[in-house]
Amino acid sequence: MSRLRSDFWVSAYLRRCSVEGVEAALRKRGAAEAGAVFVKVDRLDGTASLYGPAPQLFLDESGERLFSPILKDVMPLDVEERMAREMRFDSDLWLVEVDDRAGRHFLDLAAED
Q: Which Pfam families does this UniProt record tie to the protein (predicted)?
């Protein structure tokens, strides 16, 4: 089964956040078909988390995008520095920023057994 295009997934994700009453914004547009998607969650208390594509070993045939935490409860500047490195490596990535005091992200996380 093929995976949903990145541009469609990001559009649906932004809508989901809006429906839940959570502020989210597209910070960087990547490749429409298959750009990697990263999500920064800013808790608005001086901490943030970063989620990115799960390693391939966690992917299944469902075609769903799975995420794994990259940085948890760090300073927002730490997330920005990490994303700057990621963008130097992959200029086609997407970056979505979510502002939520509860830290909600609405992502499907890969199971880490």
A: DUF1491
| pTM of the complete model | 0.90
* 28 strand-pairing partners: 95
Q: In 10 A of CB 24, how many CB atoms?
A: 23
User: pLDDT tier at 113 (50, 70, 90 boundaries)?
Assistant: very low
DSSP symbol at 109: B
* Residue ranges covered by each domain of the chain: 6-99
Residues 19, 11: contact at Cβ < 8 Å? no
Q: Is the dihedral of CA 27, 33, 36, 38 positive or negative?
A: positive
